[in-house]
Each structure stands twice: as C-alpha cells, then as structure tokens.
Design goal:
Blueprint lengths: L7 E2 L4 E2 L3 H25 L7 E2 L2 E2 H21 L7 H35 L7
Antiparallel strand pairs: 1-2, 3-4
Helix pairs in contact: 1-2
Length: 126
C-alpha cells in the first residue's frame, strides 16, 4: 500500500505539487537559515555582542538557528509529522533535553577553563 507524503510545509502555509518541488522548497528554507548564520558569523554585529545568560547574544542566535534547522530536518525529511504524537514527543523531548544538557555542560566547563587560564589558579576543586 502506497503512503502518500504531505506536500505542505510550515503547517500548510506553503503547498507544493510534487515531492521534487517540496524538496527544493525545503532546500531553499535551509539555505536561507544557513546564509543568515554565515552572514552573522562574518559580520558579527556589535548590537549582538551583549551578554545574555552568561553568553553573547550572537551565540544564542547561532544555537537557536541550529536547533531550528535540526528540528525541521527531523520533522520533514525523517517524516516525524506523519508519526503518532507519543513517538514525536519521545524523539523531540529527548533530543531537546540532551541539547540543553550539552549546552549547560559546555558552558560550565568552558567557563571554568577560561577562569583557570585568565586568573592562573584553580577556582573550584572537584
């Protein structure tokens, strides 16, 4: 039995006539997000260099755009939108928890290593 894929993206805001058109549409969306990331990385606007929750605002934008791309790739190319709600939640919530945990660990360890190199002594003794 053939299973027909949905040919709409962004919750039905954009609809395509074939799978090929949809793939090109998704490629354009992911390319636009990537171009924004690269442009921000090259230009590094001074307005985004302020600190927010212990990290530069520009870094938070990079993290958020990367998570958006990963979520959209999973949602569209791995066909998560066609799965049951429970399976979608298990996959997405687990990934979100692990990403948040990884960010927390990297920020903690990176801050510690920076402090050791910056001040020349061990701040915390584990």
């Amino acid at each position: 039995m053939a299973h027909e894929h949905k040919l709409a993206i962004f919750q039905g805001l954009v609809k395509f006539k074939s799978n090929t058109q949809k793939i090109w549409g998704v490629l354009v969306f992911l390319t636009i997000v990537t171009v924004i990331e690269v442009a921000l990385g090259i230009l590094k606007p001074e307005a985004l260099m302020g600190s927010f929750l212990g990290m530069k605002l520009l870094n938070w934008i990079f993290i958020i755009l990367t998570v958006v791309k990963a979520y959209y790739i999973t949602w569209d190319f791995m066909h998560m939108r066609d799965e049951t709600k429970a399976l979608r939640r298990m996959v997405v919530w687990t990934a979100i928890f692990l990403i948040i945990y990884l960010i927390f660990i990297l920020l903690q360890e990176g801050g510690y290593v920076f402090d050791v190199y910056d001040s020349g002594y061990i701040k915390k003794d584990f």
